[in-house]
Request: fold
Amino acid sequence: MKTAYVSFVSLMLFLFVLPSLAQNAVDETEPGFFVLNQYKIPFAKLPDMHAYQDSIFTPILDEFVDEGKLLNWGLLTHAWGDEWNYNWFFITEDHRSFLDFWDEFFERVDERFPGWQEDVFPLIDEHKDNMYNISIMR
Reply:
């Protein structure tokens, strides 16, 4: 049952989220690289995670978009469904671009918010990453 639900969520992501992102892209944009960071966060801790998202992560992620180092990013959340309830996604030109962005992202976060891990990591029960080459994006 859980596998069917995860498959359904993945299908919905690819059918609805990626096409809507593509509508905002320039027609000449080549398919790129899509990363999904998934987290299990207890429901009672979600408000704290959202506060850290708003104060720490969102402004820095937006800088990367403005600088062209990140094509797009977003956050998928839910309070009902499977346990993977807090999910960042990132779109870059390719795998190498993602790795470069990711390293610099954490350099900026560490520089501006020393010790942030001590507050954020206890909110997370589990984490996993999925990385995909985008084959078709319209």
In short: Residues 2-23 form the longest helix (22 residues).
